[in-house]
Amino acid sequence: MAAQETTKGKTAANAIFFVVLAIAIAGVVNLLASRKFTRFDLTSEKVYTLSPASKELVKNLPDRLNVKLFMSEDLKPPFKSHATFVRDLLADYAAYSGGKMVVEVIRIGEGDTKKEEEAARYKVRKSSRGVLSANKVEIGASYLGVGFDYHGQIESIPIIETDQGLEFEISGIIKQLTVKKKKIAFSSGQGELSLGHGGASLLDQQLKKAGYDTTSLELKAKIPDDVDALVVAGPKTPMSERAKYVLDQFLMKGRAVAIFLDGQVMEMPRGMMMPGMDMPQIARSNDAGMDDLLEHYGFKVRGDIVLDSRQNYIGPVTVGQQVLGINHPVFLVAGPLEQNHPITAGIEAIILPYASSMELVGALKDGKGPIQVWKLAESSKYSWRPAGPFVFDPRGARMAEGAERGPFPLAYAAQGKFTSFFKGKQIVKEDGTKVDANVSQPDVEPMITEATQPARLVVVGDSDFVSDQYTGLAARGLQAYIADLAFAMNIIDWLAQDEALAQVRNKGMQNRPLKAVGEGMVTLIKAVNIFGMPLLLVVIGLVRWRVRRAARRIAHL
Predict the structure, then answer these.
(1) Same-domain status, 204 and 101
(2) pLDDT value at position 501?
């Protein structure tokens, strides 16, 4: 009896000891967690973890930033979970800011006019939201948005509908409010994509969200000194000598230039328009007058269109009076992309509609000189170039493949001290007249013949990928086109030497194309799916039957 009581006493003492130990461990863990913030994130893109760029941004805040999260008290799923996500995300920002970012959560009840007025002052709006519950759709209005106040300047995310891209939006607003903006100029006058609706307005909107100033200018007068990068997006008419001179001298000052150039453009032959019939489009060379300039720098955009029947995506084509989305070889997928450059890091693939192939020429081809070059994108090994004039057939998903096969380079980046295209030539004045570069002229800046410091240059054999026609497809369900916008934004970031937010932007903006496989592999996969699983179940049944039979024999012995 005494031994039994002793055993019970030991058991009780052990139980009490382990309970006290567990409480002590929990207390120590909580104490350490309160002093050092950390989080375990097992998602592939670390969606629930702040990127180093976001941490650095709030860590270096110059002054106090007030942030208010406005949310209705009666939020329904899925918006309730969105509210939890953004609240935790803002708490992470505040934790890494060292006290400079102060976050306040304001819950707004029905009829609370005072808080509603405060939300309006912070540019947060009530939004109508449909919620599916109990087999019915309920429509109601509620608040879920964030306002940012820095020195009295207020910016906001007025309505939050999804978790995707929130970190980029928040970091972009913080950057807008607290960091000096860089200016990006888009050239005009040669048929380029404009910054207005129908041009590259979606790219323009994203640049502004990322904290850039944008402007449009003709390449006549000298490019202002406050411009950090120049973008020439899709010129369709020959560039004048003056425009080329302005671009060249901008590059010679160690600045940055992006050129998105189509080698060919599609057009309908004149006189062939017939009512009620789908007329073919024929590719013609795009005379942008930039070949000599680009070849001097070491790049050549060929007058062709690269096609790919295996690695392509859905794109808009006109059939009859309708615009349909179909897979077609002209919407080729370039990828997987190399991850060794900030422009392509974190992006697996992009879609380049009607893209032209590129090649290196001169010293760059030989790998000589002071210029460092990176190949950003190329077509797959299944791509080809048409042997003759390319005629676009919207129903021609299966086309006769040309003999000249890929992969073909489609985009390059370069950095270094370039030599002026106009070295040994005359200065081109604003009125188009030319003067001797060796003689000082009044009101004429001397020609810069060698880059004063390393400049950055990006050349892509396509301009469609930045146009609203294609970037806007992401909002219509074709999510892969988001990667095109990320690619364009990363180009601007690299040109402006402001790559910090690129890693934030790439979260959730992935295009992961399936690898192209041959017909034999497709047949094998089908056979495995049809016959493999039933056969596997039969094998498992036979093994189980043999095991049970053997067990019964042993039991009878």
Answers:
(1) no
(2) 72
Question: From the centroid of its chain, how far is CA 100?
Answer: 30
- Report the run of H or E that residue 353 belongs to, with start and end: strand 350-353
Q: Does residue 95 register a pLDDT over 80?
A: yes
Q: Where do the H-state alpha helices sit in 98-211?
A: 113-121, 166-178, 201-209
Q: Let me know: does 446 contact 435? Beta carbons within 8 Å.
A: no
Q: What is the pLDDT of residue 213?
A: 95
Residue 17 forms part of a structural domain: yes
CATH number at residue 256: 3.40.50
Q: Are residues 422 and 330 in the same domain?
A: yes
Q: Tell me whether residue 9 is in a domain.
A: yes
Q: Are residues 341 and 476 in the same domain?
A: yes
Question: Is pLDDT at 276 greater than 60 in this prediction?
Answer: no
Q: Are 159 and 300 contained in the same domain?
A: no
The domain total for the chain is: 4
- Distance between CA 337 and CA 334 in Å, rounded? 7
Which pLDDT score, from 0 to 100, does residue 134 have? 53
CB atoms within 10 A of CB 178: 21
Where in the sequence is the domain holding 535, given as residue range(s)? 520-548
d(CA 459, CA 259): 5
The CB-side HSE value for 517 (13 A sphere, CA atoms) comes to 10
Helix (H) or strand (E) holding 332: strand 322-334
Helix (H, G, I), strand (E, B) or coil at 414: strand
Tally the residues of the chain.
557
Together in a domain, 135 and 161: yes
Query: Do residue 385 and residue 253 come from a single domain?
Result: yes
* CB half-sphere exposure, 245, CA atoms < 13 A: 25
Looking at 22-36, 373-387, 515-529, which range is the least confident one? Answer: 515-529
Q: Where are the beta strands (DSSP E) in 417-534?
A: 427-428, 434-435, 455-460
Residue 515 lies in a domain: no
**Which three-class secondary structure state does DSSP give residue 415?**
strand
Give the whole-angstrom CA distance, residue 492 versus residue 342: 11
User: Could you report the per-residue pLDDT of 307-345, keeping only the tens digit for each?
Assistant: 998 999 999 988 777 888 999 999 999 999 988 999 998
- Residue 395, CA distances (Å) to 162, 313, 326, 399, 549 in order: 36, 14, 9, 10, 61
Show the DSSP H helices in 98-142 as ranges: 113-121
Residue 57 lies in a domain: yes
Neighbours of 423 (CB within 10 A): 14
What average pLDDT does this structure show over 529-541? 79
